[in-house]
Amino acid sequence: MKSNQSVAAVLTAAVLIAGLCGCKKEEGPMERAGKQVDKAVEKTGQQIEKAGRKIQDTAKSDKK
Fold first, then answer.
1. pTM for the full model?
2. Would you call 44 helix, strand, or coil by DSSP?
C-alpha cells in the first residue's frame, strides 16, 4: 500500500513541476515597455533626490 502512495506522490510532484515549467511565457512588447518605464521612473527619482540634496547643501551653506 505504501508503494502505491509513494508512486502517486512522485507522479503528482512530476505533474506539478511539468505544469510550472510549461506556464512560463515570453515577454510581450507591453511588458518590455513597462520595464523600460519602470527604469526611467527609477532614474528620474534618483535625479530628483540628487537635486534635492544639492538644494539642501546650498541652503545650508547660505545660512552660514
1. 0.51
2. helix
